[in-house]
Specification:
Number of helices: 21
CATH class of the largest domain: Alpha Beta
CATH topology of the largest domain: Spore Coat Polysaccharide Biosynthesis Protein SpsA, Chain A
Number of domains: 4
Helix content: 40-55%
Shape: globular
Radius of gyration: 30 Å
Number of strands: 19
Length: 665
C-alpha cells in the first residue's frame, strides 16, 4: 500500500466532511487507506463519517486522549509506505498526494514533507516552514522581532523568512496539519511523543526525523487550505498555556545543562508575558464599549445637572454632591446592566437590544427611585433627561465605531453582501436554496458556470436569465471560467464567492482565492452537503452556513439569562422562605438544592432523563425537568428525547418558572 492518511477530529464535523471529500478525490488512482480518529466529539462527527464515508477506517474514542495519542492509535495500524498526518480543517488539491508521492520517491533522503498552506482568505501562512525553537529563535518569536523583520534569517528563523514561499527547500520543522512522512523514517524516529497533548508534537517529531538521518522538505508545488482556529481559540489563555508548556517539554527533552535552564526560564517568562497580553486583550475587547458608554452617560448627566440647576431651579448649587458619587453611578449601573442582560454587548450594533435594555433600565430606575431616601432623590426630570441622553449617546458611540470599522453609518441596516456562486446550474440552484433557508442579508447576483453546459440555452448576453430565476453571469459557450470570474467580481462588486466543490477542482478554488485576494470572502460547499464553509482569517473561527436547529439555550444571551433566572429564583425562595415552607409539597427539594444552584453547580430546570444527550447543548444538571411537571405521567425514551429537544430549542426564562412551579406544587 502506498499511502495511509490519518485525521484526528474533535468537534469540527462540517470541516471534517469537507476535508474527507477533498481527500477522497485526491486519493483516486492511489492505493491507500484513510483513518479518522475521533476524540469523543459531541457534534455527531462519528455518525457523519459512517454514513457519508463508509470506506474510512474509524476509531471512536470514548474520551479525548490528545492529538499525539490519537494519531499514534491509527499510525500503529497503518500499512502504507507513506503516512500523512492531516488536520480536519483542511482542503487538499486533487493532485496533492500524487505530487507528494512523486517528490518523496525522487528524494530518498526525505523523511518528511510539508506543503504550501493558505488560509480561508487565500493568504499564505508563514508556518508552512519553520526553524527549530532555539532560545534565540523563541525569543524573537515571543517578543515580536520575527514580525518586525519578516525576511530576516537572523530575526525570523522561526518562520524561515529568508526562504521564498515558492521555493522548495530543506527546513527544520513541518507543521502538524500536514506532515507527509516516509513510514520507514517514522519507524526509526519513533511515533509522536504522547507527553505532548496538543502543540509541540510536530516540532518534536520533525527534530527526531532529522536525528534519524533524514531531511525535512518544504514543497510549495502544491497547496492546501488550512482554516485554523477551529479546534482551539488562538487568543485564549488556555492556548498560551498549552503552547508554551509544550515548548518547555521540548526544551527539557532536547536541551541540556545551562542552555536548557536558560531556555526554560525564558519560556516561563514568555508564558506570563503572552498570557498577560492575551488576558489584557480579552478584557479590553469586552469592556471598551461599556466603559465608553459609562463615560459618555456620566458626562452627559453632569451637563444636564448643571443645565437643570440653572434653568429650572435658578441655582447652580441646587443639587447636592451625592448625585455625582451615588445617583449617577447607580443610574449608569442599572441602564448598562439591563442593556447587557438584553444582549446589547453581545451584538454590539443591534440597536433594538440596546434601546430595549435602556428602556427596561429606565423603568427599573423609576421604581428604585421611589424607594430611595429623600436626600438621594434629586430630580425625576434628571432621570428622564438622562434616559434620553443614555439612548442618544450610546447610539452615537456605536455609529462612530461602526464607521471606523466598516467605513459607513448603516448601523442596524447592513447592506446585503453581493454574492456569486461558482458551479453548475444544478449545484448553484441547490446552494441558492440553501442560502435562502439558512442565512439572511445576502444579495445573490447569480452564478458562474465553470465548464460549458450543453443543457444551457445558447445566448451571447452576459445576464442571461435562467428559467429557474437564477442568473447565469457567463455563458457556457465562453469555455469556462477564464477571466470571467475576475471581471464579474469587479463589475458587480462581489464581496463573497461560493465555490461548489462538486464542479470546481480544489486547485482551481485555491488559484482563484489567491488571484482575487483577501478583499473577497470565500465559501465552499462540499458535494451533497447541507453546509457552506469558509473563513476570512487564520486567527478567527470559520464561518458556517448550515441547515441545523438553532437552540435558544445555546445562545450567549439566553445562557446568561438562564443563570440570572436561577439566581432570581434563589433570591425569591430565600425572601419567601416561610411561605414556601408552608405551601410547597416538595420543599425538601428546594432546601437541598438551593446552595448547588446558587453557586452554579446545578440549574433549577434541566433536561429530563438520567444523562446529558450529546446532540443537545450542554447545561448543568437540573433539579426538576419537564417530566416532573407532568404529574407522574409515564414517558418512554422517545418522548423524553423530544421534550428535551423542544426545551433546548425554545428555551425561555418563563418556561423554567412554569416548569418549576408545576413540579414543586
Amino acid at each position: 500500500m502506498r499511502l495511509s492518511i490519518v485525521i484526528v477530529n474533535y468537534n469540527v464535523r462540517h470541516f471534517l466532511e469537507q476535508a474527507l471529500g477533498s481527500v477522497r478525490r485526491a486519493m483516486q488512482g492511489i492505493d491507500g487507506e484513510i483513518w479518522v480518529v475521533d476524540n469523543n466529539s459531541v457534534d455527531d462527527s462519528v455518525r457523519m463519517v459512517r454514513e457519508r464515508f463508509p470506506e474510512v477506517k474509524l476509531i471512536a474514542n470514548s474520551d479525548n486522549p490528545g492529538f499525539s495519542v490519537a494519531n499514534n492509535q491509527a499510525i500503529k495500524q497503518c500499512t502504507g509506505e507513506y503516512v500523512l498526518l492531516l488536520n480536519p480543517d483542511t482542503l487538499v488539491e486533487e493532485n496533492t498526494f500524487h505530487k507528494c508521492l512523486q517528490f518523496m520517491d525522487e528524494h530518498p533522503d526525505a523523511g518528511a514533507l510539508g506543503v504550501k498552506l493558505i488560509d480561508g482568505s487565500g493568504k499564505y501562512l508563514p508556518e508552512s516552514k519553520r526553524g527549530f525553537p532555539t532560545p534565540w529563535v523563541a525569543f524573537c518569536k515571543t517578543f515580536g522581532l520575527s514580525s518586525i523583520f519578516p525576511k530576516s534569517a537572523f530575526f525570523n528563523r522561526y518562520y524561515m523568512g529568508h526562504l521564498s514561499e515558492n521555493e522548495t527547500a530543506e527546513v527544520d520543522v513541518l507543521v502538524g496539519c500536514f506532515m507527509f512522512m516516509r513510514h520507514e523514517a517514522l519507524n526509526k524516529s519513533g511515533l509522536l511523543d504522547e507527553a505532548f497533548f496538543m502543540y509541540g508534537e510536530d516540532i518534536d517529531l520533525s527534530y527526531r526525523i532529522t536525528q534519524a538521518g533524514y531531511k525535512n522538505y518544504y514543497f510549495p508545488e502544491t497547496s492546501i487550505i488550512h482554516y485554523k482556529g477551529e479546534s482551539t481559540k488562538k487568543g485564549s489563555l488556555n492556548y498560551v498555556r498549552t503552547f508554551y508548556q509544550a515548548m518547555i517539554i521540548f526544551a527539557q527533552k532536547h536541551f541540556s545543562g545551562r542552555r536548557a535552564g536558560l531556555f526554560i526560564l525564558m519560556l516561563h517568562g514568555a508564558i506570563w508575558f503572552r498570557a498577560g497580553l492575551a488576558l489584557a486583550r480579552n478584557i479590553l475587547q469586552k469592556i471598551w464599549l461599556p466603559i465608553l458608554d459609562a463615560m459618555a452617560i456620566y458626562v452627559g448627566l453632569v451637563i444636564l445637572k448643571n443645565f437643570w440647576a440653572n434653568y429650572f431651579y435658578k441655582d447652580p448649587d441646587w443639587f447636592k454632591s451625592n448625585v455625582l458619587w451615588f445617583n449617577f453611578p447607580l443610574y449608569i449601573l442599572i441602564w448598562l446592566g439591563t442593556a447587557w442582560l438584553n444582549g446589547a454587548y453581545d451584538a454590539r450594533f443591534d440597536l433594538r437590544r440596546l434601546v430595549r435594555g435602556l428602556s427596561i433600565g429606565t423603568l427599573i430606575l423609576a421604581a428604585v427611585y421611589g424607594f430611595l431616601d429623600l436626600d438621594y432623590r434629586p430630580s425625576r426630570a434628571l432621570v428622564l433627561m438622562g434616559a434620553v441622553w443614555a439612548v442618544l449617546s450610546t447610539i452615537g458611540i456605536r455609529a462612530l465605531a461602526h464607521f471606523i470599522i466598516y467605513k459607513n453609518f448603516r448601523i442596524g441596516r447592513e447592506r446585503p453582501r453581493n454574492v456569486v456562486i461558482v458551479g453548475s446550474h444544478s449545484e448553484s440552484s441547490r446552494v441558492s436554496k440553501l442560502l435562502n433557508s439558512v442565512v439572511m442579508g445576502k444579495n445573490l447576483i447569480g452564478y458562474v458556470a465553470p465548464e460549458p453546459d450543453k443543457t444551457e440555452k445558447t445566448s451571447t448576453t452576459l445576464d442571461a436569465q435562467d428559467p429557474t430565476g437564477l442568473v447565469l453571469l457567463n455563458h457556457a459557450q465562453s469555455g469556462g471560467l477564464g477571466n470571467t470570474l475576475s471581471e464579474i467580481v469587479r463589475i458587480y462588486q462581489i464581496e463573497e464567492v461560493i465555490f461548489c466543490s462538486k464542479d470546481v477542482m480544489s486547485q482551481d478554488i485555491m488559484h482563484w482565492m489567491t488571484m482575487l485576494g483577501p478583499t473577497v470572502a470565500y465559501k465552499i460547499v462540499p458535494e451533497e452537503s447541507l453546509s457552506i464553509i469558509g473563513s476570512s482569517s487564520k486567527d478567527e473561527p470559520g464561518e458556517l452556513y448550515t441547515i441545523e436547529i438553532k437552540y435558544n439555550i445555546a445562545q450567549t444571551v439566553e445562557k446568561r439569562n438562564k443563570r440570572v433566572s436561577d439566581l432570581s429564583l434563589c433570591l425569591l425562595f430565600l425572601i419567601g422562605l416561610p411561605f414556601w415552607l408552608l405551601f410547597l409539597k416538595r420543599k425538601a427539594l428546594v432546601i437541598q438544592n438551593w446552595v448547588p444552584v446558587f453557586i452554579g453547580k446545578k440549574t433549577w430546570v434541566g433536561y429530563s432523563g438520567d444523562s446529558q444527550n450529546q446532540s443537545l447543548p450542554t447545561i448543568k444538571p437540573g433539579v426538576v425537568s419537564h417530566a416532573d411537571a407532568l404529574d407522574n405521567i409515564s414517558l418512554n425514551e422517545r418522548t423524553i428525547a423530544r421534550l428535551n429537544f423542544i426545551y433546548a430549542k425554545d428555551w425561555a426564562a418563563s418556561k423554567d418558572w412554569e416548569i418549576l412551579w408545576k413540579s414543586l406544587l
